[in-house]
Amino acid sequence: MSRINFAVLLVLGLLLVTAKQSMQMSLRNPTAEIETSNCKIAVLRVGLVLTSENSEKALLDSGLFTNISDVEIAGRTFHVGTLDNTPIVYVKTGSQTVNVATAVQSLLLKFSISGIVFFGNAGSLDENVLVPGDVLVPEAVAFTGVWEWEEFRAQNKGKLVFGNYNYPENGENLLGTAAPQNITLYSPSEDPEEVFWLPVSSSWFEAATEELKDLKLKECHSGRCLPRTSKVVFGLKSSTSDFYVKNKAYGDFLLEKFNASTTDAASAAVALTSLSNGKLFVVIQGISNIVGVESSTPEIGYIASQNAFHVATKFVNSIPTQGLACE
Ligand SMILES: *[C@@H]1O[C@H](CO)[C@@H](O)[C@H](O)[C@H]1NC(C)=O
Ligand SMILES: *[C@@H]1O[C@H](CO)[C@@H](O)[C@H](O)[C@H]1NC(C)=O
Ligand SMILES: *[C@@H]1O[C@H](CO)[C@@H](O)[C@H](O)[C@H]1NC(C)=O
């Protein structure tokens, strides 16, 4: 896609996202197909990305997905269909960032996609703000598991000082320190750039905030109920790494040094791949546990999946289904 086409698509995308219901209805039934140089008005599907069995179960159990066809690419099944009448393609990527990125890239190459909606579970790093059952729509995500591991007693110390965590007393530790690293963001319209935070598309973030602010969430599953009313939180930052974080001291480190309120193993991979393709995206995280404080039970984990799916569905249904598809 050329830069100009991308700009046209972006402007149109912004217009469409801010459009309200009535316009959405008329767009669903176009009378004419407008052709420009190599772009045309077409049905755009929302790319719905999930990583786990539980997330897929929440989708299938809802009865809202209607299957049209399945497409196999690189060992993943891409399910083409509708979610509550909105055209989507959903894919279960499998876990860890390489699997997530591979599946998102395949989705974007093979289908005409308006943007990526990712939903999945995450651990809370700040129990004052996010507890199990809550859903977070963060405004930025980062890979926080990419390190330069410094030499023992190196002059330049990394932010993570292992000696600070010696038990029962702080002291020296042969592991030394590790410094968080930036990641190279490749994108269609800019030169490659070293970045740490990956911002969620502001137009979709704002649309989600508007669309979802009063949403009621589920609080019980199989007789287990949450201790308090769940809420959708907009804003804050999320951390992604290829390790599952159960350790309280490390969770506190992520909160203090990066201001990250959640941890997962997928969101930043969705973000980086979407940004690299110049695609809109949004991240929706269901809180399943509080890192180092409260582990997830199967029931609570499933409520988190259902709540994240519920928020994702509401958002998907607010996205216009027509847009410019450019070759
Ligand atoms: C979806 O539809 C296709 C084509 O009709 C079919 O081959 C496939 O088995 C269906 N998948 C599911 C999960 O129902
Ligand atoms: C990482 O990127 C940020 C901008 O996102 C920049 O401010 C910072 O200096 C970079 N850090 C390194 C070590 O390159
Ligand atoms: C962390 O986030 C809070 C709330 O958004 C903000 O007030 C604070 O300045 C941030 N701290 C750092 C170190 O970025």
From TrEMBL:
Keywords for this protein: Signal
BP GO terms, sorted: nucleoside metabolic process
Nucleoside phosphorylase domain sequence ranges: 46-316
Entry-linked InterPro entries: Nucleoside_phosphorylase_d, Nucleoside_phosphorylase_sf
First and last residue of the signal peptide: 1-19
Single annotated GO MF: catalytic activity
Protein name: Nucleoside phosphorylase domain-containing protein
Organism: Salix dunnii
